[in-house]
Write a structure and sequence with these properties.
It catalyses: a (3S)-3-hydroxyacyl-CoA = a (2E)-enoyl-CoA + H2O; a 4-saturated-(3S)-3-hydroxyacyl-CoA = a (3E)-enoyl-CoA + H2O. It comes from Nocardioides cavernaquae. Keywords: Isomerase, Lyase. The protein is an alpha/beta fold. The chain folds into 2 domains: 194 residues, 2-enoyl-CoA Hydratase, Chain A, domain 1 (Alpha-Beta Complex), CATH 3.90.226.10; 48 residues. The chain contains 13 helices and 10 strands. The strands form 2 sheets. The chain has a 6-stranded mixed sheet with strand order 1-2-3-5-7-10. A 4-stranded mixed sheet has the order 4-6-8-9. The radius of gyration is 19 Å and the shape is globular.
Length: 262
């Protein structure tokens, strides 16, 4: 499947690794990085590649250009296809239709609308350029946003309600205030900041990082007592790992730790 300009899925979404950080970039700036089929296929392929890439410890998702992270679904394609209910695998939703155990970061370089909001929401962290805007604009085009179900767990419910009911955008600073965004930086510092944060994560013990990622969402799915029990199960292999001995030993010996992930 190709995009309208003739890009293949691997061209519509590029993959590159820098110092242990995989950069997955939506490459349709002329269409505000909208989610046509080639982009959707490229995103799934890129995430699977990241899962299999032992050299990549953290993934950063961004969009080409300075105007758009992702403007959402390609409405022209939707109209041509008379799309009704999108299938569950229409676009990647981490933790729902694709599993990614390693950490992920959204580097939002412009507007994140509809499906673009979905992508930013589904990453573990979100760093935004100061000119970025976020909106769930489905109510303005008569479409749906079932993927927004976790949003009231991430931000205050009344803020989520306003975003969903009005379809109006919020700017990066407001998104940070309500907890949707971790950091807001000038646009020309976005790539460097995302790389720096990703490298800090990548330098940590990989088993601990993965267990921490699993732990954060437990109380969204389980009662607190059950969440504690599940957290004990998740972390026990970490305590029993070689890395759990390496950490204290490296501190004692005053040397950098040498993580093996075992």
């Amino acid at each position: 499947m190709t995009t309208s300009p003739g890009l293949t899925a691997t061209e519509a979404v590029t993959y590159a690794v820098t110092n242990g950080v995989a950069w997955l970039t939506i490459n349709r700036p002329e269409a505000h990085n909208a989610l046509n089929k080639a982009v959707r296929d490229g995103l799934f392929a890129g995430l699977r590649r990241f899962n299999e890439d032992d050299d990549a410890k953290v993934l950063v998702l961004t969009g080409a250009g300075e105007k758009a992270f992702c403007a959402g679904g390609d409405l022209k394609e939707m109209a041509d296809d008379a799309l009704r209910v999108p299938p569950l695998d229409f676009v990647p939703q981490l933790g729902r239709n694709i599993t990614v155990d390693k950490p992920t970061i959204a580097a939002v370089n412009g507007v994140a609308l509809a499906g673009g909001f979905l992508l930013a929401q589904t990453m573990d962290l979100c760093i935004a350029a100061d000119h970025a805007k976020f909106a769930i604009s489905e109510v303005k085009v008569g479409r749906g946003a079932p993927w927004a179900a976790p949003l009231p767990w991430m931000i205050p419910p009344r803020v989520a309600m306003q975003i969903l009911l009005t379809g109006d955008p919020i700017d990066a600073r407001r998104a940070q205030e309500v907890g949707l965004v971790n950091e807001v930086v000038p646009g020309d510092q976005l790539v460097a900041t995302a790389q720096r944060v990703a490298e800090r994560i990548a330098a940590n013990a990989p088993l601990s990082v993965r267990a921490a990622k699993q732990t954060v969402r437990l109380v969204a799915e389980l009662p607190l007592a059950a969440a504690y029990d599940e957290a004990e199960r998740i972390w026990e292999p970490v305590y029993l790992s070689d890395d759990a001995q390496e950490g204290p030993a490296s501190f004692r010996d005053k040397r950098p730790p040498q993580w093996t992930g075992r």
